[in-house]
Amino acid sequence: FIKYGFEALRSGGHFVEIGKRNIWDKEKAQVQFPDITYTTVALDHMMKTEPKAIKRLLERLPDYEPIPLTEFNDQNITQAFRYLGAGKNVGKVVVARSVMKRYGKVMVVGGRGGVGQRLIRYMLPRSELIYSVSRRGGESSDSVPVALDIGDDTAVAEFFKKNKVDTVFHLGGVLDDQMICDLTQQTIDCIFAAKVKGTDCLLRHGKEVKRWVMFSSIAASYAYKELTGQAVYASANSYLDALAQQHDNVCSLQWGPWDIGTGMAQDVDLIANLQKKGIVDFDETMAWELMEIA
Fold this sequence. Notes:
The strands form 3 sheets. Strands 7-6-5-8-9-10 form a 6-stranded parallel β-sheet, sandwiched between helices. Helix 6 (114-123) links the parallel strand 5 (105-109) and strand 6. The protein is an alpha/beta fold. It has helices at residues 2-7, 26-32, 43-49, 51-60, 77-85, 114-123, 153-162, 185-205, 231-246, 268-276, 284-293, and strands spanning 14-17, 37-40, 69-73, 92-96, 105-109, 129-134, 144-147, 167-170, 211-217, 250-255. The protein is elongated, with a radius of gyration of 25 Å.
């Protein structure tokens, strides 16, 4: 049908190809229709890399009636493919992923921090119950606060014995930037306490947990001079990344700075230098979308 599309255009027209299969290249278009401008556009790529531009384009469209849609939930994928294979559909057949309560009972380690509080808010409609874990506990209207030292074997074992947990989000961590020549054993132990010792303790006693999501850091991968002093912090996060390679139910996410005015990377100069290297701040919406994909 591409040929007929060209023939429908008058001289000087512009053919915009949004298809993927069996499309023409520019050379073929130029030979057969030299008076027509031919452009290919990868809309799927644009939606990921330029969502704001796509949004502006859609807003310029007049009101239109969307094509028919037949929806199946993710518990009926087989039926969806059978329906599609039978040729019964008019329009699109969509499998909608269930998000409600799919994380079960959730444990958020570091839930009192800025990112932790936002994660809890995001998890509210997606979980049955949320335990917000920190050393001090505290009060909360949207989660169950728990005062717990995750490096304490006895306390952690007792917690998992009394409470069922399906998903653990581990956000705990300590920053104490120092050059290697100035490091002390106390500094190393302090930084490793949550990321290494605490993680080991949680995994040892949380045998029934189905899903572990570790909040690691780009410090584990990028040795930029702007990250000077973070050798121990980088090592601690690398430990989380290595665990994810060894366990099928463990996912480790290397976060950069967040643009929500909170988190560990809040130094203005540091953020500016990272942006020069292509590491942009995570806005909250993008962060959760990426987490879901991972």
